[in-house]
Amino acid sequence: MTISLSHRFFTISLLALTVALSGCASRLEKPRLPDVFIDPAPGGKTNGTYTLDLFNADFGDYTRAIKNPVPTEIDLKTATALRNKMVYGVLAEIDYVYHNYEISLFMNEGSFKVATDVLQLGLGMASTITNGERSKTVLSAVLTGVTGTSLSIDKNFFRQQTVQSLISSMQAGRDRTKALIIRRLNNETASSYPFQAARSDLATYFFAGTLPGALQQLNQTAAASAKDERKALTDVTVQDVENAKKLNETIAAEFAANKLDKTVAFLKAMGVTVDDPTDKAKVEAAYRDLANRAFDDPVLKKKFDEEAKKAGLIK
Amino acid sequence: MAIHKHLVAGGQTLVEQERALNEMELTLFAKVTGYAEIFGTTNNEATLEDVPIGQQPGPLHLVAADDDTQAAKVIAEQKKAGKTLAFQGKVFVVNIGAIVLGFR
Predict the structure, then answer these.
(1) Does residue A166 contact residue A51 with C-beta atoms inside 8 Å?
(2) A305 touches chain B (CB under 8 A)
(3) Per-domain residue ranges for chain B?
(4) Fewer CB within 10 A of the terminal residue: chain B, N end or C end?
(5) Is residue A40 reached through a cis peptide bond, with omega within 30 degrees of 0 on the bond before it?
(6) What percent of chain A has pLDDT over 90?
(7) Cα–Cα–Cα angle for B75, B78, B81, nearest 5°?
């Protein structure tokens, strides 16, 4: 089969456009880095990068300060200060590589999608305007292949999640671990939270900012929400607690006097039927069931409060 | 007595969570016996045990501690003040993990 000049021209133009569009994306990713962030620093100067040499020096000092099984107070203070310095140094380095990774993940996915979209569009057009059944079949097969590759990457690497949701998930996992590390650094000495323990938390922090870490966090969140449809209680005011106290006292008084009129009227208004309204055990069971359901469902809880007032349980 | 579990939003302050737990106890005729964060969410879960109607225990007061050493100190101080520890748990307070102790 010979390929016509117009087809060659079309294919070359398509590839050039794909490459050009992908190239455009790299200019969007980030502004120029300030010199103090460029690694290695320009002109052989030093910047704030926590290098392996600096780490080794600090780790040596830390090990010397904490070498005794029972370190003196001064040694412990020195070791704690050095531990904090090392941990914050490593945190900054992890943050730096993470943000670069986040940008490349976002930009590479964008570039890949632009490239495959352009390719699919071109192949679709080419198969429409091409003369000859064989050429049409070949172009359609290539188009199917390109579409399949794009779907496969989405399915196997990203598990059909958007990059935005993966980045949000990574950030949530990182924030959670960082808060834990900082709390322990602020509250614990190098004796109860030694550098080795912090190093383990730093590893968790690093892996929270990876694609597998993001997918794992998304799965855990989805699993937790799927099995738990209860709503968390929020916005309880001082007046709400006062009302609950009154309700508790009124119901307790009715049970003590063996006169359950208000409680039964309330249950009836809430749509709860009690077989024998004079049976204390049955009324109590019906009330407890309703109240427990109300604390998992804000709509039911609102109605519960309104009807309790109407029935005179909250005076 | 029956056990029930209910959620409290971990984005709230300690005072707001204290109000939520007290409202639960009074309305449900129950007492909180456990309080813990739920992994993978920012919610806390309260475990409540039913109490007989008319025998409601006193109000709950929450205190936060940074670590186990401080928690032990808080328990000793509250004990001196005549308070009893009802529960102790790792929970979210304003979305940050903390040790919380419940006294009455």
Answers:
(1) no
(2) no
(3) 3-103
(4) N
(5) yes
(6) 37
(7) 150
Query: Residue B44 corresponds to which tokens in the numbers above?
Result: 């806390």
Residue A198 burial by Cβ neighbours in a 10 Å radius (0-12, 13-18, 19+): buried
Q: Average model confidence (pLDDT) for chain A?
A: 81
> Residue A121 corresponds to which tokens in the numbers above?
């569009």
Backbone angles phi and psi of B32, in degrees to 5: -75, 125
Q: What is the pLDDT of residue A304?
A: 95
A126 near A138, Cβ under 8 Å?
no
Strand order in the sheet with B61-65: B61-65, B96-103, B85-93
Helix (H) or strand (E) holding A62: helix A52-65
Chain centroid, CA B35 distance in Å: 5
- Is A180 near chain B, with CB under 8 Å? yes
Residue A36: per-residue pLDDT: 76
Which pLDDT does position A19 carry in this prediction?
58
- In chain A, residues with a C-beta closer than 8 Å to the C-beta of B27 are 244, 247-248, 291, 294-295
The predicted model scores a pTM of 0.53
Angle at Cα A12 formed by Cα A11 and Cα A14, nearest 5°?
Answer: 65
In b/e form, how buried is each residue of B49-62, taking b as 16+ CB within 10 angstroms?
ebeebeebeeebbb
Contact assignment for A228 to B38 by CB distance below 8 Å:
yes
Q: What is the pLDDT of residue A222?
A: 67
**pLDDT score for A231:** 86
Coil, helix or strand at residue A248:
helix
**Cβ separation B8–A234 shorter than 8 A:** yes
B37 bridge partner residues: B44
> From CA A97, how far away is CA A48, in angstroms rounded?
14
Asked if A233 lies within 8 A of B27 by C-beta distance, the reply is: no
Q: Which of residues A73 and A223 earns the better pLDDT score?
A: A73
With left for phi above 0 and alpha for psi between -120 and 50, is residue B96 left, alpha or beta?
beta
CA B36 to the chain's CA centroid? 8
* Residue type for position A17: L
Residue type, A33: L
With a cut of 60, say whether residue A30 has pLDDT above it: yes
